[in-house]
Amino acid sequence: MVADVRLENPGAIWEACKRTGKKDRRASGSAGKGGTMPTIRAAGQWLRVMTSASVIMLGAGAAMAEEPMQHNLVLFEEAKLGHTDEVAALLAEGASVVARDRIGNTALLLAARTNRKKLVEMLLDAGSDINHRNLFGSTALLRAVAAGRGRIARLLIARGADIDLANRKNVTPLAAAAFQGDDRLVRELLDRGARFDVRDNTGKTAIVYAAARGFSTIVEMLLDAGVDVNAHYGNDLTALMWAAGYSNDVPASDGVETVRLLLARGARLDLRDNRGWTALMVAAAMGHKEVVEVLLAAGARPDVAGNAGKTAADLATEAGHPTTARLLGGG
User: Does residue 29 sit within a domain?
Assistant: First the structure.
């Protein structure tokens, strides 16, 4: 029943609003595209039951004024769904662009994950704080980049978004764009002076994310921007080590291409991480046979042992990669 829904669950509120709003669309003045927008009147009739019982919205400690509350609740959902016309109607009815949901998202932050440029522009024109951060420290720009919305990210940058604001994990927009493999966005961020040396809470920078995911074009951009090809990151891993141990969802050809690029740019084969592993040992443990071949051809030593006394062949054998182990001289 509707009376069982609590304001701490905005999704449930929205579903109840939609059910209630089906019978009466007169109050909104527009049903919006597809006629799916619940009316402010209908939503208010339902929410009035809740506010009359002094239910606290989002644990704020005091009952919210009924009209702003009902408008803003619907605003959050419409912004998240990318409904431009409905958001415009809600703003005209008094919804606030500074209102925040339970994790600190404004309508702009919710809209940033959609691909609705007009919606984002409208919220900015209405006075949204372009650099507002939610409880996770994410800005609209970070949310757009993480969602793969390069067009929205570029719009936010053009409108003055701070390109170096990181979230609570210290992930920057540049690092997020590198992880997504968005060459165009990485290029724009670098051209605008984005910092490429910022380390997140795990010690990774943008080049680490690009190398691990086989995005050689982005790796090259970052090297051209001034990244030290032999820098050590979290656990003393280098970009070459990350490339050699590329993620399982990365095509082998992309991993090999990135390794070749790093070698051509001067990546050292003898550097070790905190386990005493070289890039060859990382590739062997992952069973990346093609990378092992490239590293051996470049002069990597297969007889080197890590801190635990194991060679690359030993690591390949232990990980269940017999073909790679034989290539390295193992059984």
Answer: yes
Asked whether 203 and 235 are in contact (CB, 8 A), the reply is yes
Task: Look up the domain containing 52 and give its range.
Answer: 1-96
Place of tokens 């606290």: 56
pLDDT digits (tens, 9 = 90+) for 213-257: 999 999 999 999 999 999 999 999 999 999 999 998 999 999 999
C-alpha to C-alpha distance for 264 and 242, rounded to whole angstroms: 16
In a domain, 39, yes or no: yes
Give the tens place of pLDDT for each residue, 276-290: 999 999 999 999 999
40 in Cβ contact with 27 (< 8 Å): yes
Whether 33 is in a domain gets the answer yes
Collect contacts of 184-188 with beta carbons under 8 A, ≥24 apart. Answer: 184/150, 184/154, 185/145, 185/150, 185/153, 185/154, 186/210, 186/218, 186/221, 186/222, 187/221, 188/154, 188/157
Contact present, 172 and 166 (Cβ < 8 Å): yes
- In the chain, the number of structural domains is 1
| pLDDT for the residue numbered 129 | 98
Sorting pLDDT into bands at 50, 70 and 90, what band is 66? low
Mean pLDDT (the chain, rounded): 85
Looking at the domain assignment, is residue 50 inside a domain?
yes
d(Cα 305, Cα 290) in Å, to the nearest integer?
21
List the beta bridge partners of residue 232.
Answer: 238
Pairwise CA distance, residues 127 & 285, whole Å:
53
